[in-house]
Amino acid sequence: MRDIDLRLGSRLAELRAGRGWSLGELAERSGVSRSTLSRAERAEISPTAAVLNRLCAVYGRTMSQLLSEVEAEPAPVVRAADQTVWEDRAAGFVRRSVSPPHAGLRGELVEGRLAHGADLAYDRPPVPGLEQHLWVLEGEVEVTAADVTHALGTGDCLRLRVWGPTRFRCVGGDPARYVLAVVLP
């Protein structure tokens, strides 16, 4: 098991315990099975992007905030080799936290990579009203929010506020790479 999965599992258990919730209560609040929550907290599995998104929504954090909480002391500069990379292999998604983590800041940059055919669906934003700017560096991405689908190609940028479900799909023949600027409301 990777060290980040161990730290993430421990942090998820701390967040739940800090609220005095049982696994069953968290399962009800998040819509994630008790078994999956237990296995993630014990670092027996690395949670998927969809599971982390649901947990972030319950805890009122962005995914970058949660992942930064399991990193070492924040620094003003984070070298490329030291940036946290997290994978959802089943979904074909790789996420790199580009910005130096800092709990007091509202904005962050994330690099996303989607394998050909990858399809990520989130049933809710981690924080309602979250502002996102998605800039496609390579490939083609379809982003659906508020029942509107935006087809984006290399160089295109989409700005949106996220209130409900979203979906990110890699379309076209090649993988896609993008920068996501995330700003808390």
What tags apply to this protein structure?
185 residues; alpha+beta; 434 Repressor (Amino-terminal Domain); Jelly Rolls; 2 domains
Q: Can you describe this structure?
A:
The protein is α+β, with helices and mostly antiparallel strands. It folds into 2 domains: 3-68, lambda repressor-like DNA-binding domains (434 Repressor (Amino-terminal Domain)), CATH 1.10.260.40; 80-183, Sandwich (Jelly Rolls). The chain contains 5 helices and 10 strands. The chain has helices at 3-18, 23-30, 34-41, 49-59, 63-68; strands at 85-88, 93-97, 107-114, 119-122, 130-138, 140-145, 148-152, 157-162, 166-171, 176-183. Strands 1-2-3-10-5-8 form a 6-stranded antiparallel β-sheet. The protein has a 4-stranded antiparallel β-sheet with strand order 4-9-6-7. β1 (85-88) and β2 form a beta hairpin. The longest helix has 16 residues, at 3-18. The model has no long low-confidence stretch (mean pLDDT 90).
Summarize the structure.
The chain is an alpha+beta fold. It has helices at 3-18, 23-30, 34-41, 49-59, 63-68, and strands at 85-88, 93-97, 107-114, 119-122, 130-138, 140-145, 148-152, 157-162, 166-171, 176-183.
Question: Could you give the topology of this structure?
Answer:
Elements: H1 3-18, H2 23-30, H3 34-41, H4 49-59, H5 63-68, E1 85-88, E2 93-97, E3 107-114, E4 119-122, E5 130-138, E6 140-145, E7 148-152, E8 157-162, E9 166-171, E10 176-183
Antiparallel strand pairs: 1-2, 2-3, 3-10, 4-9, 5-8, 5-10, 6-7, 6-9
